Amino acid sequence: MPFRVVVTAFLLVFALGCHDRIFPGTISSCTLNSDGLTQTCDLYEGSSKTSGPIDLINPVTAGFVVLVDKDLISWSDIVWFPDDGSGLASRNIELFSGPFDFSVLPFNENEVVAGATFVKVLPTDPTVFNVSTFGFEDNFRVFRESAIGAEIPEPSTLILLFPALIIMGTASWRRATDK
């Protein structure tokens, strides 16, 4: 009986403590399109309120894109294209997910409203918008956190299930052979 308790405790500690390090969430990134001139950036909402800076391949026009919910009033996400001083976002972009506390964000609400393009969130993932820079259309796709969890199965479930089945089978076999 103590053996089962130790194994169960080990599996529980593994599931709680190591899962995020071994199975990181989906990472936002940009890739060069086949034309060699434009890029597609996949932005994933995370459990934290920001996806962190996402490196761009090509510069894009600086500003904000605000994703609004179906009521067209509530802000779901803000994609920030920080100005590098030339009117372009040449290094990176950042996705912020609501609710928003503008006292801790690197910009204020007035800056967003003054320079934003508003895009309605689609009922199915991803919400897609384009940013035109020098006549080239770069694609940006925002994946909602709720949809990410629904579409991607949890890999640790199987990793934890198989050792548990092996241990239970071994314990049953030992009991059967000890009689």
Describe the structure.
- Helices cover 32% and strands 33% of the residues.
- The longest helix is centred in the C-terminal third of the chain and has 24 residues, at 155-178.
- The strands form 3 sheets. A 5-stranded mixed sheet has the order 3-8-6-5-9. Strands 1-2-11-10 form a 4-stranded mixed sheet. It has a two-stranded antiparallel sheet with strand order 4-7.
- It is built from 5 helices and 11 strands.
- The chain is of the alpha+beta class and 179 residues long.
- Helix 1 packs antiparallel against helix 5.
- The chain has a domain at 25-145.
- Mean pLDDT is 80; it is low at 18-24 and 148-152.
- It is elongated and about 80 Å long.
- It has helices at residues 2-17, 19-22, 109-114, 145-151, 155-178; strands spanning 29-32, 39-44, 50-55, 60-61, 63-68, 75-81, 88-89, 92-97, 116-120, 127-133, 136-143.
- A hairpin with a 6-residue loop joins strand 1 and strand 2 (39-44).
Task: Give the biggest beta sheet.
Answer: 5 strands, mixed
> What is the overall pLDDT average?
80
The assigned structural class equals alpha+beta
Strand order of the largest sheet: 3-8-6-5-9
SSE string, helix = H, strand = E?
Answer: HHEEEEEEEEHEEEHH
Poorly predicted ranges: 18-24, 148-152
For the CA atoms, what is the radius of gyration?
23 Å
Strand-residue proportion: 25-35%
Termini, distance in Å?
17 Å
The count of β-strands is: 11
Helical coverage, percent range: 25-40%
Shape: elongated
Number of helices: 5
